[in-house]
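Predict the assembly for these three chains.
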Amino acid sequence: MTPFFVITGIVTLLGAAFAMSLRNLVHCALAMAVAFSGIAALYLQLDAQFVGFAEILVYVGAIAILIVFAILLTRSGEAPEKSVLTSGWMAGIAVSAMVFTILGWAVLNTSAIPKEVPPAPLATVKHVGDALMTKFVLPLEIIGLVLTAAMIGAVIIALKEESKNGNSGRKS
Amino acid sequence: MTALQGCLLISALLFAIGFAGAVTRRHAILVLIGIELMLNAANLNLIAFWRFGPHPEALTGFIFVLFSMALAGAEAAVGLALVIAIYRHRKTSNLDEVKELQG
Amino acid sequence: MFDQLDQIFVTALHWLVGFVPEAWRPLASSLICIAFILSVFPAVFSVTTIFERKGIGRIQNRYGPNRVGIPFTKIRLAGFGQFLPDGVKMLTKEDIVPRAADKVVHFLAPVVMLIPVLLAYAVLPFGKNMAVTDYDAGLLFFFAVGGAVEVSVFMAGWSSRNKYSLLGAMRAIAQMVSYEIPLILSAVTVVMVVGSLNLNDIIAHQNQYTFGVAHWHVFTPWGLVGFILFFIASLAESNRTPFDLPEAESEIIAGYFTEYSGFKFALFFLGEYLGMFAIIGLGITLFLGGWTSPVAFLAWIPSYVWFFTKLMAIVFIFIWIRATLPRLRMDQLMNFAWKFMLPLALINILVAGIWHYMAADWQRWLVCSVIIFGAYVVLGRGLMQNQKFGKRIYRYAE
């Protein structure tokens, strides 16, 4: 629990808190990118180098940009005038506080935590590659299919529809 | 408090924040942001247990997280395509206003 | 003697770090490496701006800047001192922030651009034993921080509250995301053949000589195609002509950094050029042998001299291309990335696999070259089918 770890954790949690509570959606997306970078730094401190770099590549480099594009394509760039919270928000906050309380109590009072810390595992790219190709080859192939299906599906869902007289949805 | 407990607490708090946001906010995209935060919290949990648990050389938690990230990317793409399609039909991305199944 | 000259910076680093007590040594070593990068690469940036202006001027049949020497002295350097007054001008210009702009995001955008770009230099090996960090997944680190630059482009374009800035930012992000894929796929071929993501291992794989010629990856069929794809994709990633539609002066004034002036614009400019050097450095490491020499009898020249020579040679080619080729339109740019470069990069991966598994003689050269040439011709004809080129018509203003 080095100080660096605590600072990274605080930055991540602040980023996440801002991401969920700011009024302006673009600020929320940028705070979310900060939270993702904080999580990547946490991964790097846990000796998971490949996962840390993959987190920046996938989440900050792709998902954050995707969310930003979606915000702009749905014209939500300006701050809304009405309330940003849905009806029944108090129940949501109460449930989430309860979730955190139970999880925190379980974590702090458990006896299942091993006392000695194992040495840093050897998670080099070669080991990851070997594992992916021998032990985890079935999930690898399946995720190839899943990603292809998701890509094609996302394009089809977001495609502009051609109406019957070929006006592509415009009303003349 | 050991390092593992610190990681688990951070992940639990991140999950709670993501959950609170996903359930409380009105805009569809903010719900998706909350879901991404929850997925990240779960991934952090997995990596913490991989690092501090027995047999880290089996790389099980590590590979799980890699696949979880790939799936999160796919799910974000499809979810955002859905939000864009809903906006195109209903001209709103407020979840309170897309409550009814209509034409 | 030449070995000592080669390792002179490493021994200087060890000597300097020896002054510091034991516990602070890693921190001191990192700080000295950071100081080295922060002093050398902006200097290379200044020299490049001069060469760019003079080079483009000469290609366009005019002189570039040819008068400025060192200011306040009588030394005349025929224009090579131009970067000093330019730097002073950028630093002293008034910093204009639009009234409706989002102040925090507008301020942070140049900073967020510079940080990933400078981080990318941490894995490049500038010479033998001269990489700042030796990550096991160094190549992935480079691509990860390259992807983080897009966030700053969006921040700059959106926070200016200018619809043309936003349009330029969206175009720039679409272009960067599209060209990241051929970039990474052409680097994947190198990773496949070498078997490691570590940049020092990739250079060690190229550091062998047969008949006096090095085993650079660019001297193999898949490496040549990979290098050309990487080169074109890095032109697009740095927003250089012919892919500079997002920031071209005659198109959109300056795209996503229209509303920036003074020091923030200087930071963007610096960040763009530093990004260009970083990605050229990676291309040199992957395909052109990094700090190794091409022929065995020139291996006595220090390794960092080779690295920077190759860097400046490729920067010169970038400048040459900028002065020569016209700009691509946005849809032409995207078509080129998705319909030509991506299939060719995938076929290149296939060819690299065939190369790796065939025996090492002339047949594999023939098979790989035929596959690549066939793919290039088929894809090229496929792209050209929708073009209609008639006879060139000249219309005069009468």
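Chain A touches chain B through 85 residues (CB under 8 Å). Chain A has six helices and no strands.
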